[in-house]
Amino acid sequence: MNKIESKYILPNAITATNMFLGFLSITMSIKENYSLAAWLILLAMVFDALDGLTARKLNAFSEFGKEFDSFCDSVSFGLAPGILIFSLLSNTANNFPKELITPLAFIYALAGVVRLVKFNVVTTASDSKDDFSGMPIPNAANLVVSYFLFAEVTGLGVEPNILAIVALGSAVLMVSTIPFKIPQKIFSFIPQKMLLFVAIAILATAKYSLFPLGLYYVLANLFIFFSSKDQD
User: What SS3 state is found at 102?
Assistant: First the structure.
């Protein structure tokens, strides 16, 4: 194996780890260990970010890597949250219509796959970070799992109707054509020298902070979009 080929091994191995964590999350949802299932999806997001960072450092972009990343994301951020939604509503939501659970969970997963296919069709493998058409699937997964963690840690408990709204709303935003700016632009008000401190603070308070931050990201993008519409 020559040097040119070997540089692709590490980013693709990190991408595979992302999928492995998504697979483990699914098994935890089946076993009704919802907290661990949620954390595994969030950990998969870390590896999803790391594979892109590693590819940029090694200049190891390829069409294979782009496709592989999307297939793995479809498991970790499409299927795994979908199974979590299904299992939560099936086993803990006595007052939620049972006939709606499977369609709701499937619609979320299907929208995630459609979002990834659309992304692959309109983009090429490169080191550039552009804005998105529709909400990126990791943000959708974050909304679902961080809502669960937030509801648990605050003692409010998961409200089935709110979970359904979060899941369905995320599905609609993923397949929409609404422009979503990259997080660096939405959170550009954070000084560069404070980024490490802020990241540590978010990690330390993840159960409380991820859901509000995820909502802010969505609402900020929607505000920008509809504000620009009013000006046209």
Answer: helix
Residue 1, CA distances (Å) to 4, 6, 16, 61 in order:
8, 7, 20, 18
pTM for this predicted structure: 0.91
| Token pair belonging to 9 | 């091994």
Q: pLDDT tens digit string along 16-53? A: 999 999 999 999 999 999 999 999 999 999 999 898 88
Q: Which two tokens stand for residue 82?
A: 């979908």
Rounded distance between C-alpha atoms, residue 229 and residue 232, angstroms: 5
Q: How many CB atoms lie within 10 A of CB 122?
A: 10
- Alpha-carbon gap, residue 147 to 137, rounded angstroms: 15
* CA–CA gap between residue 108 and residue 226 (Å, rounded): 24
Q: Which residues are within 8 A (CB) of 214 and not within 5 positions of it... i.e. 6 or more apart?
A: 139, 142, 143, 146
